[in-house]
């Protein structure tokens, strides 16, 4: 049994109608749940055709028919074909014209077959991840080389894809850097958290050591500040002359 929603004129399609898109958050969330809960695997017979193999329940078939019928009413360039091929087998074919292959690529990248790690919509392209985390794409490559960020997977079209939790990881890295941790220290902190190392290597110990380092630097900066103030107050205007003066407040005797 087949339920076909044929595509019609595709010469003009508004951007807000293209899926996936942030402009359609409710419909996008419905597709994400559908992908996560009901898709077993996917095939790409051609650039213009994506075939989703669904769990074979009546609920899955109803959900596919309802969702694709509503999407067809919104986006005329899609062609959906929901077919029951056996007692426990339902397929959903999604076809687009050649001018919209990129939309099909985006949908394929959102799909995570049911029962596999992660969830639908949990993968970001490098540009999306960089934008969400406030870094540039070159930073992602650098962090990968430093072992701070796992190497991405590849989409069927060759795009670099990162799990959505990478945004949180990048924010952790940037926050740790603002606290004064070097990238090497950040890597140690991340690895300690992942491998549940002994407390002496974790965040409390590292933060205590970093605090002591910061306090030493503050003491040094305070001394520098006081010397500069004293030099200004004493009217120092020539380092050569000051170096030969016993009353100069600059710390020549400490060098």
Commentary on this structure:
- By secondary structure, this protein is α+β, with helices and mostly antiparallel strands.
- It has helices spanning 25-38, 58-74, 101-110, 126-133, 137-145, 166-178, 183-195, 203-234, 239-243; strands at residues 2-5, 39-46, 49-54, 79-86, 89-95, 123-125, 153-154, 160-163.
- Strand 4 (79-86) and strand 5 form a beta hairpin.
Write the layout of secondary structure elements.
Elements: E1 2-5, H1 25-38, E2 39-46, E3 49-54, H2 58-74, E4 79-86, E5 89-95, H3 101-110, E6 123-125, H4 126-133, H5 137-145, E7 153-154, E8 160-163, H6 166-178, H7 183-195, H8 203-234, H9 239-243
Antiparallel strand pairs: 1-4, 2-3, 3-5, 4-5, 6-8, 7-8
Summarize this structure briefly.
With 255 residues, this protein is of the alpha+beta class.
């Amino acid at each position: 049994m087949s339920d076909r929603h044929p595509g019609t004129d595709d010469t003009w399609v508004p951007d807000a109608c293209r899926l996936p898109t942030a402009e359609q958050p409710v419909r996008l969330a419905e597709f994400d749940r559908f992908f996560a809960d009901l898709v077993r695997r996917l095939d790409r017979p051609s650039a213009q055709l994506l075939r989703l193999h669904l769990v074979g329940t009546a609920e899955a078939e109803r959900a596919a028919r309802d969702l694709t019928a509503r999407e067809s009413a919104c986006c005329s360039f899609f062609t959906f074909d929901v077919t029951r091929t056996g007692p426990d087998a339902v397929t959903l074919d999604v076809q687009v014209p050649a001018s919209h292959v990129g939309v099909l690529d985006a949908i394929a990248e959102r799909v995570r077959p049911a029962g596999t790690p992660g969830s639908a919509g949990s993968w970001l392209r490098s540009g999306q991840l960089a934008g969400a985390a406030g870094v540039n794409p070159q930073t992602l490559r650098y962090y990968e080389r430093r072992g701070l960020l796992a190497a991405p997977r590849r989409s069927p079209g060759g795009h670099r894809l990162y799990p959505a939790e990478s945004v949180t990881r990048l924010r952790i890295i940037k926050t740790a850097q603002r606290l004064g941790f070097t990238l090497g220290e950040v890597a140690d902190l991340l690895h300690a958290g992942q491998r549940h190392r002994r407390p002496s290597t974790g965040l409390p110990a590292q933060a205590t050591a970093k605090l002591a380092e910061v306090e030493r630097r503050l003491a040094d900066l305070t001394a520098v500040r006081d010397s500069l103030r004293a030099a200004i107050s004493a009217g120092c205007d020539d380092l050569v002359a000051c170096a030969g003066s016993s009353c100069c407040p600059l710390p020549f005797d400490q060098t």
